[in-house]
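Notes to self after the Tuesday call (sharing in case useful).
The group wants a holo model before anyone commits to mutagenesis around the pocket. I volunteered. Ligand is guanosine-5'-diphosphate. Logging inputs and output together so the record is complete.
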Amino acid sequence: MASDKPHMNLAIIGHVDHGKSTLVGRLLYETGNVPEHVIEEYKKEAEEKGKGTFQFAWVMDSLAEERERGVTIDIAHKKFDTDKYYFTIVDCPGHRDFVKNMITGASQADAAVLVVDGSEGIMAQTKEHVFLAKTLGINELIVAVNKMDNVDWNEDDYNKIEAEVDKLLKMVGFKPGEVQYVPISALEGGNIAEESENTPWYDGPTLLEELDDLSRPESPVDLPLRVPIQDVYSISGIGTVPVGRVETGEIRPSDKVTFNPSQKSGEVKSVEMHHEEVPKAGPGDNIGFNVRGIGKDEIRRGDVCGHSDNPPTIVDEFKAQIVVLQHPSAITAGYTPVFHAHTSQVACTITNIDKKMDPKSGEVKEENPDFIKAGDSAVVTVKPQRPMVLEKVKEIPQLGRFAIRDMGQTIAAGMCIDLTP
Ligand code: GDP
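Result:
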């Protein structure tokens, strides 16, 4: 598959049984990405057992073995491309670890397709996923009103669902230009790659055209340089060599750089990747780089390297949006768990719980609540016990997210939404 196209991470969200797996299978099939052996196997089985239509959920089941082996392999296998983009389908909400992965950036989605069964409309998980998607920073959504083959669908029914979903999306904070609607049949393929005969009243784009029409997320290359440091070496004859993965921006020899929160500055002498010197490195590159003017003991793991004219932000106190995943009791002001952000681990005190939101709708349920517990979403004020680097998630998403751990568990995930004075 051509990978020179811009890459997009896509989440397929929606209530159970509304057709998410079927749609994923269908998208892979229509774009020629279901392995031939899978189709052959299915046809053989269908002949032997007399099964009916090609079941796309089955395609996903046949990849289930890989799914069992873990999230990364699961993700690695669900890729397809359209004319413009190369898509990776990221794990869906409801699947284990989805929230954690999205917030920590392991599978941050750039856009989402919300699947709504046209005969059922909005259900509990529809609301939950929509709110989660918005909370986690997904700003573009395609609503696929599914199963249009199922009933005698007419334009009025479709418009009713569209109005209902539109109301929910507005309440959660999506703006009109951020949402597109398309009536589909994931099972039969209507309005996926080609127009459906079942919906003569719909002359808008197909789902694949809508996917092509998504706006491209800002490339991490265009963001300020940020290299979270994993390790620092001192190599005789060379000097100090910090090692880390470039998250955003580009780094070149002779760049003036600053490491925060250590507040040490120096000049890049050389950049190495796979033991070879390179003229520059960018997002995703694991590098070691030699800096002049900084001693090995002056910087450490958890520091972030950036250009001196736009150094990494040291936070003293910040506002965060968090989702409590699991906690045996309640979280109250004063609670001090460990925040894991990029390569740093810093004990931080939740000094105030500003507001608690309904995890299903995003509506503010309570201002300054006394406590929050598992399942709650909240805006909190956080004070790190020592200086740490964190960026506003709107500005540099890669450096704005964190997981909150305590008692050997990830108890919450969140992102920095504001830097308070
Ligand atoms: P998920 O739980 O959201 O992943 O839903 P599935 O993809 O497993 O689908 C649930 C059921 O709905 C399965 O029996 C599918 O065959 C059926 N289904 C999915 N898409 C369609 C569709 O477009 N039309 C019809 N009639 N059934 C569908």
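Two things stood out.
Residues 14, 16-22, 55, 57, 146-147, 149-150, 185-187 surround guanosine-5'-diphosphate (CB under 6 Å).
Residues 155-172 form the longest helix (18 residues).
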